[in-house]
Amino acid sequence: MVDISVIDSSAQVLTGGKNDYDSLLELIGESRFVLLGEASHGTQEFYHERAVITQRLILEKGFTAIAIEGDWPDAYRVHRYVCNKSDDNAAAEALLGFERFPTWMWRNTEVVHFINWLRKHNDSQGLSTPKVGFFGLDLYSLFTSIDEVLKYLDKVDPIAAKQARARYSCFDHFERNSQLYGYALSGGMAGSCQNAVVEQLLELHGLAQKHLEHEGAEATDAFFYAQQNARLVKNAEQYYRNMFNNQVSSWNMRDRHMTEMLENLDQHLTQKHNSPAKIVVWAHNSHLGDARATEMGEGGELNVGQLMRQRYGHDVRLIGFTTHHGHVTAASNWGAPAQRKMIRPALHSSYENYFHQTSLNKFYLPIKEDYRLREMLSQEQHLERAIGVIYAPQTERQSHYFFANLASQFDAIIHIDETKALRPLETTSHWVDGEAPETYPVGI
Q1: Where are the domains of the chain?
Q2: Helical H runs in 274-331?
Q3: 68 and 282 Cβ atoms separated by less than 8 Å
Q4: What is the pLDDT of residues 97-108, one digit of tens each?
Q5: Which among 105, 115, 288, 441 could bridge 37 via Cys, Cβ 3.0 to 4.6 Å?
Q6: Would you say 419 and 401 are in contact if contact means Cβ atoms under 8 Å apart?
Q7: Could you tell me whether strands 316-330 and 412-419 are parallel, antiparallel, or unpaired per DSSP bridges?
Q8: β-pairing, 382-385 with 401-404?
Q9: Which runs of E-coded beta strand occur in 295-372?
Q10: pTM of the predicted model as reported, rounded to 2 decimal places
């Protein structure tokens, strides 16, 4: 049973002041990986608070990288901008690489504000101080990553580039459509490109000594960028080859890929700066909360938070976000326009509703450090809400809730009771007009 008085006494009210997250930074301590979640991909406050926390981690804890639930080549364009190494003239221009649905997830006003801050911060640092980087972990950019591998090899090794084109030509019949590739394989209409992409990754790895033996940091970064793209192509091929066969298997492939990309980024930055890397991760709660504490984990799913905890222990901190009601930017169907949708009040037996009963709008719960709170929340599972890029209020319970043990899922929670919709950089009439209000019974 949830005791609201325990939540009320444990909650640390967030006022927007500079000391809001002092307790969180104490909890983080010397941890090298801080995973900051979100309960939706379209809530303004989640993005804003993650940025505030990340800024403090950079300034006070020496964090040197942000890794996001976005594709590697798209994020790397932003990385070059914040490190003053690109031709882009503004943050919004640097974010143009995020062309795939949902564009608002990274092309929004909150991310622009953060990218501007990050560029200014990096520009103010001395030559010997590492620049704070911006990197992607996801695997949807199969064809863009192929282009980037070929672009790199064209510059450094035209012979290897020719062989890479021959291998990657296996994908030429699928109109740069990754899902079409997966569909064709599932129906027996095409052969697998698995061997080709594995061979290409192995060959690129073997070229490291040849190309980097007498080169400097710029060449090392360029090679690492190409290598991560080749790794993404291999993993994306496997993902799309299996996506029509097993939903759990596809989910696990994706989160294993994101963890692999994160670990390789850690190794690269550690070697580059000659000290252990410290990385902030921005992704959905469903990727960053420990899956073993949820009903999805019971069904065989794993995620980044679980894998990182298992491999790095106390070097990892998992921070979740929740909301009770408000508005969210989301679509009604995959590929549909972004809308400003009303979020229904949380279901009666959900964590979000228990937090709502405190009558506090914005607070921090130090689950890991508060024994009484942790013990109370550990007693049983309750419903938790997750809104991705699609919000379907008409099937609220089935589409957006799952059972979880919050005390095992996260080290801390930030709850914002009423939230606003994230503002896309391209605000169409669908978003400006918003979703038409509907009449519905509350709390069912």
Answers
A1: 4-139+255-433, 140-254
A2: 285-288, 295-298, 304-312
A3: yes
A4: 999 999 999 999
A5: 288
A6: no
A7: parallel
A8: antiparallel
A9: 316-330, 339-343, 362-365
A10: 0.95
Can you read off the two tokens belonging to residue 19?
Answer: 């000391």
The yes/no answer on whether domain 140-254 falls in CATH 3.30.1180 is no
Q: b or e along 265-296 (b: 16 or more beta carbons within 10 Å of the residue's beta carbon)?
A: bbebbeebeeeebbbbbbbbbbbbbbbbbbbb
Instruction: Provide the token pair at 160.
Output: 């290897």
CATH class, 4-139+255-433 region = alpha beta
Q: Is 136 helix (H, G, I), strand (E, B) or coil?
A: strand
Q: 209: pLDDT confidence band, cut at 50, 70 and 90?
A: confident
How far apart CA 40 and CA 323 sit, in angstroms, is: 9
Q: Using DSSP bridges, classify how beta strands 133-138 and 339-343 pair: parallel, antiparallel or unpaired.
A: unpaired
H or E element, residue 159: helix 158-168
Region label for 434, one of left (φ > 0), alpha (ψ between -120 and 50) or beta (otherwise)? left
Size (the chain), residues: 444
Whole-angstrom Cα distance, residue 375 to residue 212? Answer: 53
Q: How far apart are CA 407 and CA 387, in angstroms?
A: 20
User: What does residue 92 show for φ and ψ, rounded to 5 degrees?
Assistant: -60, -35
What DSSP line would sit under 233-288, residue for residue? HHHHHHHHHHTTT-HHHHHHHHHHHHHHHHHHHHHHHHHHHTS---EEEE--HHHH
Which pLDDT tens digit goes with each residue over 26-47? 999 999 999 999 999 999 999 9
Residues 6+ apart with CB under 8 A from 195: none
Sequence-distant (≥ 6) Cβ neighbours of residue 427 within 8 angstroms: none
Question: Would you say 328 and 419 are in contact if contact means Cβ atoms under 8 Å apart?
Answer: yes
Which residues neighbour 330 within 8 Å (Cβ) at sequence distance 6 or greater? 40, 41, 42, 338, 339, 341, 387, 388, 389, 390, 391
- According to DSSP, the β-strands at 65-71 and 133-138 are parallel
